[in-house]
Specification:
By secondary structure, the chain is of the alpha/beta class. It folds into two domains: 129 residues, 2-Layer Sandwich (ornithine cyclodeaminase, domain 1); 175 residues, NAD(P)-binding Rossmann-like Domain (Rossmann fold, 3-Layer(aba) Sandwich), CATH 3.40.50.720. Helices cover 37% and strands 25% of the residues. The chain has eleven helices and 16 strands. The strands form two sheets. Strands 1, 2, 3, 4, 5, 6, 7 and 16 form an eight-stranded mixed β-sheet that branches. Strands 10-9-8-11-12-15-13-14 form an eight-stranded parallel β-sheet. The protein is globular.
């Protein structure tokens, strides 16, 4: 049996954003229905960085898998990405390995696709203005994802590195043919936006609750460790909070854990998981004036579902490198 190796270009071709949005919707429903298994991610803290392992099993798809990813924040500003790794896919009947996929591209696409599902379910339908805090890989993929589900015509981007924000704005305006403006403060980016995506590696809040306006929807994507956060406490307390996995939220998300430890919120402030909204088990947005917040952690079932989807297409189309295994 051949092991299929798929690189970044293969994945980008085989996992277009619109397909991934539909795939992530189905995957989140599968998880909420109890038809998938996954533990919390395991993180090895090293002097140089982190190594995280994210296993999952999808019974309906007949696969299991694990994403192994290294996190080296000192790579920021270099030719190397902060997150690097691989997704290893197995078939569930006999446990044979099927494929190895480059993890950064899988992560970039599936993370933004899940935010798009959250936006579909929670954001107002008439939103045309998007604020992006951050100017890296997730900022780019989130612009693609938001435009796939809402008629975005105006984008404002802020980054802690103004030069990167300017470069991002120029590239994305040319790519999408819409107005993309770099601004010099996060508050200026957020003002009047219907959707806000926080995609930074910040350890301290970059989005303040005082800036939020009625009817906004926020996709909070960065800060996936207990001691860091992108949103201040006021932003959390003013919002109706949803997440991809409650177990992950209460153990891993500083955006939730820090306000909870301050005594400002508790688990009752969690409206529910996105999969529960998709299944109709939890209500979504209650009114046009409500502020909704999706806190994304990124979980193993998303990577395994993406890998299975890409592997099936690669097999059908003959894409990727084949290695005799074992």
């Amino acid at each position: 049996m051949d092991l299929v190796v798929l690189n970044r270009a293969d994945i980008r071709t085989l996992l277009p954003m619109t397909e991934c949005i539909d795939l992530m919707s189905r995957t989140l429903k599968t998880l909420a229905a109890g038809k998938a298994l996954q533990p919390l991610r395991t993180i090895l803290e090293m002097p140089e960085g982190q190594l995280a392992l994210m296993p999952a099993w999808l019974g309906d798809a007949g696969v299991s898998g694990v994403k192994a990813v290294s996190v080296y924040f000192q790579n920021q500003g270099t030719e190397l990405e902060t997150h690097q790794g691989a997704v290893l896919l197995f078939e569930a009947e006999h446990g044979r390995p099927l494929a190895v996929l480059e993890a950064s591209e899988v992560t970039a696409i599936r993370t933004a696709a899940v935010s798009a599902v959250a936006t579909l379910m929670l954001a107002r339908e008439d939103v045309t203005t998007l604020a992006i805090l951050g100017s890296g890989v997730q900022a780019s993929s989130h612009l693609d994802a938001m435009r796939a589900v809402r008629p975005i015509s105006t984008v404002r981007v802020w980054s802690r590195n103004p030069d990167r924000a300017e470069q991002f704005a120029k590239r994305q305006a040319q790519k999408h043919g819409i107005a993309v403006d770099a601004v010099y403060s996060a508050r200026e980016a957020v003002a009047g936006a219907g959707i806000v995506c926080t995609t930074t590696a910040a350890e301290q809040p970059v989005l303040e609750g005082a800036w939020l306006e009625p009817g906004m929807h926020i996709n909070a994507v960065g800060a996936c460790a207990p001691h860091v956060r992108e949103l201040d406490t006021d932003a959390i307390t003013r919002s109706r909070l949803y997440t991809d996995r409650i177990e992950s939220l209460v153990k891993e998300a500083g955006d939730f854990i820090i306000p909870r430890d301050e005594g400002k919120i508790d688990n009752l402030n969690i409206a529910g998981e996105l999969g529960e909204v998709l299944l109709g088990q939890v209500d979504g947005r209650g009114s046009d004036s409500e502020i909704t917040l999706f806190k994304s952690l990124g979980i193993g079932v998303m990577d395994v579902a993406s890998a299975a989807h890409v592997h099936r297409k690669a097999t059908d189309l003959g894409v990727g490198q084949r290695i005799e295994w074992p």
